[in-house]
Amino acid sequence: MKVKTGIISFAHLHAYSYARCLQWAEDAELVAVSDADETRGKAAAAALGTAFYSDYNELLKEDIDAVIICNENVHHKEAVIAAAKAGKHVLCEKPIATSVADAWEMINACKDNGVKLQIAFPVRFNPPVRRVKNLIDEGRLGRILAIRGTNRGQNPGGWFVDSALSGGGAVLDHTVHVVDLMRWFMNSEVKEVYAEIDTRFYDLNIDDCGLLMLEFENGVFASHDPSWSRSETFPTWGDVTLEIIGTDGVTKVDAYAQHLHLYSDQKHRYAHEFWGNDMDLGLIQDFISCIVEDREPSVTGIDGLRAMQVALAAYESSAQKKPVSIIRSWGD
What we know:
- This protein has 2 domains: about 5-120 and about 280-300, Rossmann fold; about 125-280 and about 310-325, 2-Layer Sandwich (Dihydrodipicolinate Reductase, domain 2).
- The chain has 10 helices and 15 strands.
- The mean pLDDT is about 95.
- It is about 35% helix and about 30% strand.
- The longest helix has 20 residues, at about 300-320.
């Protein structure tokens, strides 16, 4: 069985990577793409050798099994719900949405229409990160006491710095990945957030840096630095690092450490040339296999919701200048 798949929008930077992964995956077939920006969409369709639709509702009428949604954050909800009503399984770019209410609507729409909803957290499929998960599950670090995380990158520009389309800046963009890993490592939820958020690196009307202090329900304390603090000449666009402190050991992981050092006379800069495992391919393969095997996605809509809640609580904490509690309930 080949899972016939379409891509909705190339607004997000990862859309091309996901498209290539679909073309490499044995059980998948990229059937068509859509984009409200016709110039961008037609260019993507030509580069990928596939059909193009300017209206994703027309794409959803095609004989496809699934879609990958990569439009601007505030448009995730309408696209996911439309796909669910059309009976298509969904892989949605992170963050799942820009509000708790929207996220629940998306989750419920997929559940009510019997389709799978997976959120794009590819770092879960990075082999060094998965090894750390195994170390924790095997108890080799003992009881986890604290975690320090970072997700620092370059300013992506475009709609990412337009709050009307993104719903938030660096804190929303870069918190969800690392919080998802922390939750996954410990099977525990964040119960309280204290954050300081600001704009320090660029002349923007949106946040480009912050520092989050998190308390989990299992008693673990964690810190997280989400920022667009990397300059244009930095050797790599960003990072995902974690230091996990346990009663029996301490370990550190860098999801992007699989690289060579390149000193280029052509580009007149030092760069990291990645040689390691493609975590995007792992994400796509997992999404396709959950459809083929008819199982729950490894990263669910609830996972996307919980990670997004932490980022939203961070904004609330920074505005109020005090810790904010996250209350768990069905439907929130």
